[in-house]
Amino acid sequence: MSSVIDTLKSSQHTISAMTDTVAAHTEHKENIFVELLHHTQDAPYLEVPFGYINLPHFPPVNLFGIEIDFSITKHVFFLWISAIIVLFIAVAAARKNTKSKIPKGIGNFIEVFVVFIRDEIVMPNMGKEGVRYMPYFLTTFFFILIMNLTGLVPYGSTSTSNVSVTAALALIAFVMIQASAIRQQGFGHYLAHLTGGVHWILWPIMIPIEILGLFTKPFALCIRLFANMTGGHIVIVSLIGLIFIFKTIWVAPIPIAFAVGIYILELFVAFLQAYIFTMLTSLFMGLGMQVSTDKENSH
Asked: pLDDT per residue over 174-200, tens digit each?
C-alpha cells in the first residue's frame, strides 16, 4: 500500500512538472507574439541584432502647466535618420545636376520624381501659381517616403505609424493650406469665403461649418497616413502570429507566404501614401487658391 502511495505521489510530481513545462512553453510562445506586436509600437530603445540599445531619457519639462517629455524614442530616432537621408539625397542630386547640364545618376533619378510631382500633382491642382510651393511638396513627398521605407528595413521602424508624427505633418499642411489661400485671396476675401456666399441670415449656420471644414482636411491627412502605415505592420504580425496560435511549424509556409506578399505590398503602399498625402495637400491648397481665381473670372 505504501509503495502504491509513493508511486501516485511520484506520478503527481511528474504531471505537475510536465504541466509547468507546458505552461512555461506556452507562455514563451505568447511572449514571442507579444514581442512581435511591440515591434510595431514606439519604444525608448533601438532593436539591434545583439539585443537592445537604450536611447537617452530626459525628465519631463513643465511648460505652462503641460508636462512634455523630450526623451528620444525609436520613432524620433528614425525620423531624424529619414531627415538626414533626404538632406543627403537632395544635396547629392543638386551637386550632380549643377556639374552637368544633362542629368545623370542620382540627379536624373531625383529629377524623375520632381517632374512627376510638378506636372502630375501641382500643375493640375494649383496651376502655375503652385510651382512656387514646389520646395514644400518635394520635401513632404521625400520625407514621408523615406520614413515609410525605413520600417521595411530589418530592425528599422516606421515613424509615420506614430500619430504624433502624422499630426505634425498635418499641422504643417494646415498652415500651408491657409497661408496659400490668404496669399492668393487676401485676408478680407479669405474671411468672406467662410460665409459660403449665402445670405447673412444663414451665417450662424454656415460659418461654423466652414471653420469645421478647415480642420477636417488636415485631420483626414493625419489619420489616413497613420492608419495605412500601421495597418500593414499589424497584418504582417498577425499572419506570423498564426504560427504561434496553431503551435505547429507545418502551418508556417502559408502565413509566411502571405506575410511576404503583404511586405511587397507595403513597399507599394510606402510610395502610394507619400503620393496621396502630397496630392491631397496640393488639392486642398488649390481649392483655396481657386476661390480667388473664380471671383476674378466672374468679374
From this structure: 999 999 999 988 888 888 888 877 788
> Residue 56 — φ and ψ, nearest 5°?
-60, 140
Side-chain-facing half-sphere of 12: CA atoms under 13 Å: 6
DSSP conformational letter for 103: -
Calpha distance 62→68 (Å, rounded): 6
pLDDT at 170 (0 to 100): 96
CB 159 within 8 A of CB 144: no
Q: How many whole angstroms separate alpha carbon 14 and alpha carbon 20?
A: 10
What radius of gyration do the chain's Cα atoms show? 27
Q: Of 251, 241, 268, 205, which Cα lies nearest the Cα of 34?
A: 241
Per-residue pLDDT tens digits for 107-137: 889 999 999 999 999 999 998 888 999 999 9
Output the DSSP codes for 69-96: -----HHHHHHHHHHHHHHHHHHHHHHH
Tell me the sheet residues that pair with 45: 54
Amino acid in the structure at residue 119? D
Residues whose CB falls within 8 Å of the CB of residue 293, separated by 6 or more in sequence, listed in order: 127, 184
Residue type for position 243 = I
End-to-end alpha-carbon separation of the chain, Å? 111
Grid cell for residue 232 = 500593414
d(CA 163, CA 257) in angstroms, rounded, equals 30
236-290 pLDDT per residue, tens: 877 777 777 777 777 778 888 888 888 888 889 999 999 999 999 999 999 888 7
Q: Is 249 exposed, middle or buried (0-12, 13-18, 19+ CB in 10 A)?
A: exposed
